[in-house]
Amino acid sequence: MLLATKLGAQYVINYKKTLEWQEKLLQITGGRRVDHILDVVGAVDQTVKAICIGGWIHTIGVLGVRNVRILPHFLASRRRRGNNDLRP
């Protein structure tokens, strides 16, 4: 979090201290969803609730298999979706 601040982040949210971090994010932005989310903890459900139409979700790691409800506006964004697997 310190590195993100040093690199210019205006706000950082500690997901361990703020379990419903997407609500805090929407509070900071005045209810506006964001353009980019870097998700390094696999919080896919919360991330989808916080991303704007046409936004980018950058996910690094998801543990286990999950059923995630993808919202129609997310699929309608026409953005490229893909994944990379670094396992051998």
UniProtKB/TrEMBL annotation:
Q: Which Pfam families is this protein grouped with?
A: ADH_zinc_N
Question: What Gene3D superfamilies does UniProt report for this protein, alphabetically?
Answer: NAD(P)-binding Rossmann-like Domain
Ranges for the Alcohol dehydrogenase-like C-terminal domain?
3-73
Check the record and name the PANTHER family matching this protein: PTHR45033, ZINC-TYPE ALCOHOL DEHYDROGENASE-LIKE PROTEIN C1773.06C
- The identity of this protein, by name, is Alcohol dehydrogenase-like C-terminal domain-containing protein
Q: Which organism is it from?
A: Gymnopus androsaceus JB14
